[in-house]
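Go through this pair.

…
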Amino acid sequence: MRGDITIQRLNADAPSAEIVACWTFEAWGHLHPGLTKEQAIARLKAECGHAGVPTIFVALSEETPVGTASLIVDDMSIRRDLTPWLASVFVVPEWRGQGIASALVRRVEVEAAENGIERFYLYTPDQQALYRRFGWQDVESLEYRGENVTVMSRQLGL
């Protein structure tokens, strides 16, 4: 990752909060039929916690947001028994391939560990190899909202 990239906790009143909400809405809004951009912004701002769950991180190049990742209570309506979740890992296309997503995932893992979380989850349709490199393990494959996805888990402290 480039040395000028920093990862910070996103605050609801930060100028970049709406930008991050728009990224995630554009990337995954189709998974939430009926959700408006305004609702997505409000939901993201509500998930900007001070520590633990929920928390959203943003990768910045100086003051410009270039990526995000979240630690949230629930990311899959059909698996509410699983909690918490790594969610919304996103890097702006022109910034990809520089280790930013990896750094964001590691930061969320540290946040989880620091807050006593021993196991957490994610789902992905196509990034299984990335997460397996970090020790995530497949839990199950299923269809969720029209996509074939893999639910994965990460045991911390091993």
About this structure: The chain has a mean pLDDT of 93.
